[in-house]
Every structure is written in C-alpha cells, then in structure tokens.
Automatic annotation (TrEMBL):
PANTHER family: CYTOCHROME C OXIDASE ASSEMBLY PROTEIN COX15, CYTOCHROME C OXIDASE ASSEMBLY PROTEIN COX15 HOMOLOG. Coiled coil: none annotated. The lineage of its organism: Eukaryota, Metazoa, Ecdysozoa, Arthropoda, Hexapoda. Its main location: membrane. InterPro entries: COX15/CtaA_fam, HemeA_Synthase_type2, PsdUridine_synth_cat_dom_sf, PsdUridine_synth_RluA-like_CS, PsdUridine_synth_RsuA/RluA, S4_RNA-bd, S4_RNA-bd_sf. Residues 365-425 form the RNA-binding S4 domain. The chain crosses the membrane at residues 32-52, 114-132, 141-161, 181-204, 216-238, 277-298, 310-331, 337-357. It catalyses: Fe(II)-heme o + 2 A + H2O = Fe(II)-heme a + 2 AH2. It comes from Pseudolycoriella hygida. It comes from the Eukaryota. Keywords: Heme biosynthesis, Iron, Isomerase, Membrane, Metal-binding, Oxidoreductase, RNA-binding, Transmembrane, Transmembrane helix. GO terms for molecular function: heme A synthase activity; metal ion binding; oxidoreductase activity, acting on NAD(P)H, heme protein as acceptor; pseudouridine synthase activity; RNA binding. It is a multi-pass membrane protein. This is Heme A synthase.
Length: 649
C-alpha cells in the first residue's frame, strides 16, 4: 500500500474487509442491545432482592459519583452505620441491629446502585459512539434518546423512592416503588423491541392470514401485563403478600370482607388487602386474555404460530404457579423473585408475538410490493427481470409485477435467485478505501452502477441489499457501465449530503485516464459547450438549453503517444481528462469532439477505434476530496486495469 500522512493516499491494495466490517457493526449493535436488556433484567432482579430483604434504606445518601466507592475499613463502616442509625428504619425496626447485619443489607443496596450505574454507562457510552459514527438508524434515534432520558429519570425516581422512607416512617412509598419498577420495565421493553426490529426474520411465518383478533388479544395482554406488574409493585411495597395466604379464596370468600366498593377511592390503594385482591383479579384477566390469544393462534393451524402460543402458555403457567406459591407460603424470597422474572419473560413473549403478527398487517396485494416486504433485498428491477425469466411464479404461472395476490396463492421463487446477495459480495471484492464517512470501490468495466431494463445486476442492487440489513449506503455520483475506476459511496445520509454538495460545487477533483485514437490539435487544453441528447443518437452539440442541452467543460492533456501512424492522424495516445462538470457521457463525447475517440467506445467511436479494443479504455484513476468536506484531504488512486496493457499497444 502506498500511503503518506498528508494528504492521505490509498492504492488498490487497501484492505477489502469493509463491508464485512459493516455487517460486524450491525452485529455489535445487536449484542449491545442484548447486554443492555440482560443488565436491566439484572437490575430488576436486584431491586426485588433489596425490597424483599428490606435493604433499600441502608444507604441514606445519594452520591452519583463518589457513591461507587464502598466503605473500605472499620472506621468508614462505623461512619455509614452511624448515618443509618439517625433514620427511622433503624430507630423503629432495627434498634438491635449489629454492624455485621448492617453490612449485609448495605452490600445488597450498594450492589443494586452500582449495577444501575454500570447499566447506564453500558447504554450511554456505546450509544454516543454509535451516534457520532452514524451507526444508528435515523428512524430509531428518537427511541434511543427516549431510553436514555428514561435511564436518567429512573435514577432520580430511585432516590425519590428511597427518600420517602427516610422521613417519618421506615417504609418507602409503594406508589414511588411502582413507578420505579414500571419505568425499568418500560426501558427493558423498548430495548427488547429495538433488538427485535434489528434481528427479526420476517420470513418465519406465512402471510395472507386474518389476524385482527390475534392482534387485539396481544395488545390487550400487553396492557394487562403492564398493569399487573404495577399492581405487583404496590403489593410488594405494602407487604400485601403477607395477608390472606390462601388460594383461590381470600379467607372464606372470593371478595375479602375488608373490601367494600361503596367507599372505593385512591386511598383504597393504601390497603394491602384491597391491593392484593385487585392483583388477583388482574391475574385472572391476564390469564383469560392470554388463553384467548393462544387459542386464536392455534386455530390458525400454522406451525410457527402454534409454537409461539405454546411458549406463551407455558410461561403463563409458570407465572401462575409461582404466584400461587408466593401467596400460600407467605412470600418466600426465591419464589417471589422468580415470580417477578417470569413477568418479564411473559412480557417479552407477548412482545415477540406482537412482532410476528404485525408483519402481516396491511399487506399490499400487488405482487412486487408484497415481495419487497418479505424479501427487502429484491429491487424492483430484479423482481421484474425474475418474473420475465419465470424465476418467480404464482401458482406455477408466469405473471406481471402488478399481479394482485390473494390468500391461498402459492408463490414460487427459484433457488438460483441470489442476485442481491451476490452484488453485496461484489462490493466487498472491489473495495479499495473506507473511513467513517464513505467507501470507495474500484468498479470494473461492465458492472452497471444503476439498474436498467437490460442490466442483470448493479451496484445499486447491492446497496439496497445492504441497506435492508441496516446500513445507509447511498450513491453520490455515477460511472458509465463500461467505464472502470473509482466510485464513491456515502455511508450515511449526512455524508451523502456533504459529498453531493461538494460535487455540485465542483470542489471534488476527478482524474480519468483514457486511450484514444487520433491526433490532438493541442497537447493540452479545455473543451466546453452545450451538449444534449438526441433520440437514438447519443449526445451531440446543441445550440442552447431549450434543446435540452447542458453546459459541459473538460480539461484534457496528452500524456504519451503509444503508437504513431504514417500520417499521424491515427496515433494511439494516453490521455488525461479532468471534468469540471458531470454530464452523462461527457468525457466520451468530448473525446469524439477532439477527434480522438476512446478505444472500445461503441457509441462515440469510429469503426477503427472500436475494433482495436474489446473493452472501452476509460478509467477513473484518481479522485481528491478537499479538507473542507471531512476535515482532511483525501486522495484515492487506482492502477489501470490489466487490459489497458499500454506496452503492447
């Protein structure tokens, strides 16, 4: 690799692992979300431990930074113990507590708070990195920022909850406890949903199903589970699990005698008997809703949905069983913690089910639009070409892209249809440069940049395939199909705007090398004028823009005469072109106007120039991006393809 520090210069030998690296970045984001989800679940678990062991009030100060350092000697332990002794929990409930007993509850609360800080940092630091590097999908930015705000709110609510138990009574507010738990659950579910969006395989289930009732029960179950988790927090905050340790009745009645609906108001939620009763009613409602959901899924007679239903019903059964044991055995800590975790698992299962069902909502009936939903790597051009070649058929028949599919139609897709995948691999094979803003590929002659009616595959197909995996690649300029050389592709929307603006302002300098046949009047100079397209005849000079013409200007230079002719009118020369504008076929047309058409150019060449080369000898050899675009000057160069073979011409 040829490389210098200023400016940056990269040759053809640059590493070609860029697109594999991009796929790895997507995988890293998914793994980051998995870690965050697991850490939030751990936080919920530790919160349950601190609540069930009455450890939450052992640390009576909130020190967001210095609080990460625990007591490290006997003196500091005594200091913490003295602080604890000044508050109601010690004075009213734990007056006989020893230092060793205090250490036990202190460590539980300390670990809970430390885990909270670690979880927040594990979310914040990678998020900032992904955001700065443009790795976060624009459509997801709002969700990620919402989660970040909720993390900060969660920390504040946690201390606000603890503070309620440090004033008059040694009990935290059960309402604040419920708020603290429900925010944690919302954070988890948002993270889980982002993970599902990033890794969800929409090819898992069949389509064309009527799912309105399934979606209704799924959404109803989600709402009821959230309500039930909140009620569970209120029960825990009031020690409601210690009253009426019987099931299914509360004492000898279904409705306990303490519950009177005549005087029902907000104060009723301060009564542990009433809250436990409402929590039981909520459990019945959740069970009925989920059983109806499971039954409706099973009736669809679809194997995937049956497995989903079985998973949900299994977790529901475990949740019911653990809840009954908690009531009957007066809240054993281990079972109570399992009961809490099963609630999170059940919420995850229902969320997963919602995603599976949501895939089928509002499906278009046109075949091409239908296929794009379930096969995002298939472009419109690929679909239409595949239909013409019968690689995609409906009910074994050849049909048009506008064919309207209906439930029961069988869509056949040929196993050889791997164009999108192959074009993605193709980009990787020709990669010569990449940074945080763009990639550059050394495009071979014959590979189209954009799709067309006679084009089998293109770079645009590859980009659409990669973008379906979560990237944001975007073309910022183009090369003709038969032109080889450097092609720039932005990595994200912001980079594409900067690069396209730079092309419009003509501050990106491109250099092309070509082999032409003829004799130049001058060894260097410029050629300019209005050029426009005539139907069926390529580009020609036109008088003004009213005829469809656009101004084009190119600097040219004779680098070397490779072969001379007897009359000097058929010299073969190596030429350098520097276009100041970017019109279609500009260099090829200008070479023709210079009476030196490019070898192998079947559109603008002469009979002799066409026969001298099977490929068009035009190559985008060098490109320079000035410092004002990305803060550094970047020069990218490539070698001429082997078929130029200047020595043998």
């Amino acid at each position: 690799m040829c490389q210098s520090n200023d400016p940056l210069v990269h040759s053809k030998t640059f590493s070609n692992n860029g697109l594999q690296g991009k796929a790895m970045q997507i995988l890293i984001i998914k793994r980051w979300l998995i870690v965050c989800c697991c850490m939030v679940v751990v936080m919920i678990f530790l919160g349950g431990v601190t609540r069930l062991t009455d450890s939450g009030l052992s640390i009576v100060e909130w020190k967001p930074v210095t609080g990460i350092i625990p007591p490290f000697n006997n003196s500091s332990w005594q200091s913490e113990f003295v602080k604890y002794q000044n508050f109601p929990e010690y004075q009213q409930r734990n007056i006989d507590m020893s230092l060793s007993e205090f250490k036990f509850i202190f460590w539980l609360e300390f670990i809970h708070r430390l885990a909270g800080r670690i979880t927040g940092l594990l979310y914040l630091i990678p998020l900032l990195y992904f955001f700065i590097k443009g790795k976060i999908n624009r459509s997801s930015v709002f969700v990620y920022l919402t989660i970040l705000i909720l993390f900060f709110v969660q920390g504040f609510i946690g201390w606000y909850m603890v503070k309620s138990g440090l004033i008059l009574h040694p009990y935290v507010s059960h309402f604040r406890l419920g708020c603290h738990l429900i925010i944690a659950v919302i954070i988890y579910n948002l993270l889980f949903c982002q993970l599902m969006l990033g890794s969800f395989d929409i090819l898992l289930i069949s389509h064309g199903l009527k799912l309105s009732s399934q979606k209704f029960f799924c959404l109803l179950s989600l709402i009821l589970i959230y309500m039930q988790i909140l009620l569970g927090a209120l029960v825990a905050g009031l020690d409601g699990g210690l009253v009426y340790n019987s099931f299914p009745l509360m004492g000898n009645n279904f409705i306990p005698k303490e519950v009177t609906f005549d005087s029902l108001n907000i104060q009723s939620f301060n009564d542990p008997v009433f809250v436990q009763f409402i929590h039981r009613i909520g459990a019945y409602m959740v069970s009925i809703s989920i059983i109806l959901l499971g039954n409706s899924l099973v009736k669809l007679a679809h194997p995937k949905l049956k497995r989903v239903a079985c998973a949900i019903l299994l977790v529901l059964g475990l949740q019911i069983l653990s809840g009954i044991i908690v009531v009957l055995y007066s809240v054993p800590i281990s079972i109570a913690l399992l009961h809490q975790i099963f609630a999170i698992i059940l919420l995850s299962c229902i969320s997963w089910c919602y995603f599976l069902l949501d895939v089928n909502i509002e499906l278009p009936t046109r075949l091409d639009r239908y296929l794009k939903i379930f096969y995002p790597s298939l472009t419109q051009g690929i679909i239409e070409r595949s239909l013409r070649l019968r690689k995609i058929r409906v009910n074994s028949c050849k049909i048009e892209a506008s064919f309207r599919v209906k439930a029961g139609d069988k869509i056949f897709i040929d196993s050889s249809l791997n164009l999108a995948v192959s074009t993605g691999k193709l980009l990787n094979d020709y990669l010569i440069y990449q940074d945080d803003y763009f990639i550059a590929i050394d495009k071979p002659a014959g590979l189209a940049v954009q799709s067309g009616s006679k084009i089998r595959l293109s770079i645009d197909d590859a980009l659409q395939y990669l973008n379906s995996l979560g990237t944001e690649f975007k073309l910022v300029h183009r090369l003709d199909k038969d032109t080889s050389g450097i092609l720039l592709i932005a990595k994200n929307y912001l980079s594409s705007i900067k690069m396209m603006r730079a092309f419009q302002e003509k501050i990106i300098q491109k250099t092309y090398l070509a082999v032409g046949l003829g004799k130049l009047q001058k060894n260097e100079g410029e050629i300019s004028g209005m050029i426009g397209k005539k139907r069926g005849r390529g580009y020609e000079i036109v008088e003004n823009d009213e005829e469809g013409g656009k101004f084009a200007i190119t600097y040219y230079k004779l680098l070397k005469v490779l072969r001379t002719s007897a009359d000097n009118n058929s010299n073969i020369s190596l030429l350098e072109f520097t276009p100041l504008t970017g019109r279609m076929h500009q260099l090829r047309f200008h070479a023709k106007m210079l009476n030196c058409p490019i070898l192998g150019d079947v559109k603008y060449g002469t009979a002799e120039s066409i026969t001298l080369s099977k490929k068009m000898l035009l190559h985008a050899q060098k490109i320079m991006l000035p410092k004002q675009i990305f803060g550094k000057e970047i020069i990218i160069e490539t070698k001429l393809p082997s078929y130029f073979n200047l020595n043998s011409i």
